Amino acid sequence: MLCGSSAAQTTPQHLQPYMVAADVPRKAFVLGVSKYQFQQPIPSAEKDVTDVASHLKALGFTITQASDQALADADSLLSEFQTFLRGIPPRSIVLFYFSGHGFWYGGDNYLVPRDANLAAPPKDPITGAVTHPARINVAVSTIRANIASALPGQSIIIIDACRDQPVFGFPPEDPATKSSSKFQDVSGTLIFFATGEGKYSQGSIDPHENSRYTKYLLQHIEEPGLEILGVHREATEGVIFDSKNTQQPSFAGLYLSQIYLRPTEQQLEADKETWADILSLESEEKVRRFMARLPGSRYVLAAVQWLNDRATSPRSVSSSRINPLAIEVPETFATELATRRLRPVGTRVGPFQLPGLDGALALNTAQVDASTSASLNVGASSFGSYAGGPRIVVRAPTTAYAGFGAGEGAELQQSRALNPGDQLVVRKAFSFRDKNWLEAITRDDQVLYLSDFQIPDLSSLQGNSAVATVSFSGDDVLAPFDTDGLRRQIESIDPKKITGVAIRLKPSTPNMTTYIRQANEIRLDRLIANVRRAGIDPNVIAGLLSNDRQDQAPNTALFTIRYRN
Q: Using one digit for the tens of pLDDT, what is the confidence trace for 448-478?
């Protein structure tokens, strides 16, 4: 670390109460059906659920095993599962495991209870039509929705069952849903299937053996340091080899978080250091990002407490007065810096022609540039999807306007009050009628015009410069990184003489997923925290997540340091 000691050791006194580690509750609901009334028995299912429960208990899970009555029918199973969920504390890690018969129908996966008769399902007493499969079976999408209602930190669903489409007495599938999946883009849930869509899963006729997928799952589930998706991947390799490629496990859901069922001591220490870095920034946005990425962290409950304690305080967003590009190449902004005036309205310049902000507005300390953000699937919101300009932060109460009136006067229209902590994305930066203006979009997609700011005096950026590089491995936010070179570079300069630090972080791949973006945002936050800890003014530290420099290696952070003699 830059200060020569760990982030946790240098946590300010007022933040020390939030450095208390506590395990996030782990809760598991497990069931296996071996003996069916109308289906072939699966002798291995009973051993599967017993062994899975034993391993999960060793990993700190509190186990609830479905009763014999719950195994009988869909209504009993869902009722007992919902009772289990009512006892789940918020932010828990919730795991659901099933071993037994299953099938794929209408874009969903179904679990077959013990007494369900697929060959002769019940009929509607009025119309005589055969009921939908969900009437006597349990849809995995229903399991997922029930878990989501309990507000877990992360949910994991493991289904060791067939996903084929057998001939049974239900209505024909709707062609519109037959090949679609209700598990696409499911956030906050990981669903592991023992086999692929439309395929079978191999159980065992020997009650002393596990099914094929569960056998390999259990070989790796307690492996130290292995992330939960890594457990599934290892199990998948074993199943594919054992089955000679006839059974291929799969997973569904949006993989956005990292869960370590048995973290190593190194990972536990990295978890502590990561939280200390994020906490030091005192930003609700960054704390929530930490909780989403590491829902199993021993500091999630401390993060919840910090957010609760901040509930009545003004929102806090990490901010800077300088655009990182102005630190890297100040001559790009020569006109703006010399005149403290933006280009006239109508001039074809991008919003990144904004060198910096002072007054009621500031730049978000961590920026994502257009070439990077344009590749992200960030939803329909214009605020999230607009790739053109920097994010800005309101630092003091100010007034914005919905537009200019027509005519010579061009009067301002429809004022709106903005409060500290509000964030916007800049679409245009320009001067009009002897005043600097920003056209920006809010989180609720309203376009506003703001002028309560100044272009700061950044003439000190024209001085000396130094560079340093930090490298990363993979996209694991808990992977260690070496800041010794950066520390030596900063120590060779008096921190009070430093006038700007730009941190340009290049991801591991140009085709950046949300998972990779979030990992790099946390890394960027940690680097900003490290530079702050070195005694450098937070207002002159600016970060940028970007792919656009061809001379920068992937998975590196390039630091440009400006300082005066």
A: 999 999 999 998 898 899 999 999 988 899 9
Residue ranges per structural domain of the chain: 13-18+274-309, 23-252, 342-364+381-454
- How far apart are the C-alpha atoms of 170 and 384, rounded to whole Å? 43
Contact 425, 387 (CB under 8 A): no
Q: ∠ CA(179), CA(255), CA(108), 5° rounding?
A: 25
| Three-state SS at 123 | strand
Count CB-CB contacts under 10 A for residue 480.
12
CATH architecture label of 23-252 = 3-Layer(aba) Sandwich (3.40)
481-511 pLDDT, tens per residue? 999 899 999 989 988 899 999 999 999 988 8
Tokens 């940690």 map to which residue?
526
What are 22-78's pLDDT values in tens digits? 999 999 999 999 999 999 999 999 999 999 999 999 999 999 999 999 999 999 999
Report the run of H or E that residue 520 belongs to, with start and end. helix 514-533
Radius of gyration of the chain (CA): 28
Q: Do 272 and 8 contact (CB within 8 A), yes or no?
A: yes
Beta-carbon contacts of 374 under 8 Å, excluding residues fewer than 6 positions away, are 387
